[in-house]
Design brief:
Radius of gyration: 22 Å
Structural class: alpha/beta
Bound molecules: adenosine-5'-diphosphate, 6-O-phosphono-beta-D-fructofuranose
Strand order of the largest sheet: 3-2-1-4-5-10-11
Largest sheet: 7 strands, mixed
Length: 321
């Protein structure tokens, strides 16, 4: 039987996952493999939700958000019994390797499947949060930031008309990367992230000072990981006397057409994943460093620390009004 390469998407979806699936499929077929698309992440592997993909099946998806393979979170996959079951399924499909597109949890599953199930697994970082330690860049991050920025541009109009302060909660799980970049790009007066301490009185003072300097409307960006958007909104209103409203952007940030950057990065990473499997590599994460595609051992990638960009945070705070 012709050797196959499997591909699945796991965890929260991210714009650009389709571009990665397309690249994996075409690169693999062009190297002589069959491609098996596994639906709904590790769940699909356990329950046999597999479809063979042709080059034509991945036509017209590079520009689409979401994932044509669907995605899911699979709690069973933390148990050895299920990892071994999934490995059996991979072997029955004659899989030479499996490309897992997802976040750090998905990579832990891929590492277990490599180690315990002896399946060649390659992880591609697919999450809007940009919270995986090793790669500097994750598929979906750029699109999500642009979506949030566009939404805040719209909020700014109404905020301006009503002389209000808009507190905007953006996604990112426990990380403040989306918040920090979006705060700069949207001209926010303050950015609150889990990585940095914040002082409500100092934020209120800054808003009052800006108000005295004729600034009439304000944007405050808060990362969801701070877990206190409502309290911050109330606090600003009470301390400044300025009418303050909260907008939680939510899942809209995960949708939409991927940006050029996400499409190109996803395509490069998908191609590299197939090259790695073809060369016999296993247990690697494909990432980007200094705008170059790299690959590292999964455990090493998971153990790495990604320090928060305190310099960018400083810039953000120094140009607010
Ligand atoms: P998200 O951050 O959107 O949840 P992840 O890639 O972290 O994305 O997805 C988590 C999923 O990864 C889990 O639901 C599960 O399916 C899978 N997973 C597999 N093995 C593990 C593990 N050892 N620890 C955590 N998650 C795992
Ligand atoms: O990891 C992506 C992400 O969108 C996070 O930013 C957010 O915390 C989480 O997933 C939301 O998950 P769910 O889709 O389960 O609501």
């Amino acid at each position: 039987m012709q050797k196959a390469i499997g591909v699945l998407t796991s965890g929260g979806d991210a714009p650009g996952m389709n571009a990665a699936v397309r690249a994996v499929t075409r690169a693999a077929i062009n190297k002589g493999y069959r491609v098996i698309g596994i639906q709904r992440g590790y769940n699909g592997l356990l329950h046999g939700e597999c479809v063979e993909l042709s080059c034509r099946d991945v036509s017209d998806i590079i520009q689409r958000g979401g994932t044509i393979l669907y995605t899911a979170r699979c709690l069973e996959f933390k148990q050895e019994e299920y990892i071994l079951k999934a490995a059996e399924k991979c072997k029955s499909l004659n899989m030479e390797g499996l490309v897992v597109i997802g976040g750090d949890g998905s990579f832990r599953g891929a590492a277990d499947l490599s180690r315990l199930g002896n399946i060649r697994c390659i992880g591609l970082p697919g999450t809007i949060d940009n919270d995986i330690q090793c790669p500097e860049y994750t598929i979906g991050y750029d699109t999500a930031m642009n979506t949030a920025m566009e939404m805040i541009d719209k909020l700014r109009d109404t905020s301006q008309s009503h002389d209000r302060c808009s507190v905007v909660e953006v996604m990112g799980r426990n990380a403040g990367w989306i918040a920090l970049n979006v705060a700069i790009a949207s001209g926010a007066i303050a950015c609150i992230t889990p990585e940095m301490p914040y002082d409500m009185n100092a934020i209120a003072e800054k808003i009052k000072k800006a108000h005295e300097a004729q600034k009439e409307h304000f944007i405050v960006v808060v990362a969801e990981g701070v877990n206190n958007s409502e309290g911050i909104t109330k606090g600003i209103q009470e301390l400044t006397g300025i009418e303050t409203r909260l907008t939680v952007l939510g899942h809209v940030q995960r949708g939409g057409m991927p940006t050029l950057r996400d499409r190109v990065a996803a395509s490069q990473m998908g191609y590299r994943a197939v090259e790695l499997i073809d060369s016999g590599a296993t247990n690697r994460v494909v990432g980007m460093k200094d705008n170059k595609i790299i690959d590292v051992d999964i455990q090493e990638a998971l153990a790495m620390k990604k320090p928060f960009d305190t310099e960018l945070y400083r810039v953000c705070n120094e140009i607010t009004f």
